[in-house]
Amino acid sequence: MSIIYILGNFLGRAVTSYLLVWLFYLLINKFKWRIAFKQSARWYSWLAVILMTLLGLGASFVRQGGLI
Fold it and tell me: Which of 1-5, 22-26, 40-44 has the lowest mean pLDDT?
């Protein structure tokens, strides 16, 4: 397993996690995308992104035994 594969997997999960957080704020703010971007840039939103990314990686390790 190469380092590029691991970094790509981590980056893909992080982007997906950020999009989920942004979508959550978008729905809460009645599709006002500028407000959703502002709220998704706060520290607790980034904490949610980091936690979701790490939980996704952890679930991958438990389920498959690797980064698949």
Answer: 1-5
